[in-house]
Amino acid sequence: MAEKYGSRDHRVLSLGISDIGGSALTTDMAVPKKRSDAEIASGIPVTYVPARNTIFLSYALAWTEVLGAWDIFIGVNAVDYSGYPDCRPEYIRAFEQLANLATKAAVEGKGKVRIQAPLLYLKKSEIIRRGTALGVDYAITHSCYDPSPEGLACGACDSCRLRKKGFLEAGIQDPTRYLGK
Description:
With 181 residues, the protein is mainly alpha-helical. It has two domains: 122 residues, Rossmann fold (3-Layer(aba) Sandwich); 58 residues, no CATH class. 36% of the residues lie in helices and 3% in strands. It contains seven helices and two strands. The mean pLDDT is 91.
């Protein structure tokens, strides 16, 4: 993806989140399937990965400081999502505040770290429309919490259901490769 979209630099870091566990996405715990919209909208599901976005943002913050950059972008969403606490606007604001207390450059007054979350308040359909307008090839992506060994999306987990609904509401053909499709 980084190469396709012309990223100047791309790093892959091994974070070992599965060593921590605590989530259906990092252990052998079953991923919930075919939950209703009401179930998705209530509570924090077992697919929540403890501190995942904090870990991602911390690594990004370290690299940002090394680069002398001031903006960190993260694709969290607090509209059509599974209720994860680290996808909420107050979390993003709090991490930005922490970043400006925790970095040498910010403390020395050389700049202010900004956490950019451009998808935060968008519905999935709006995200899909915006991505399509920007040329995102959704056929090479999926959001599935429980993909098959061949990389096919399950079509029944919360993330697949929200993605399908987003494409439907956007009026755009869903190119996702689902099991049984």
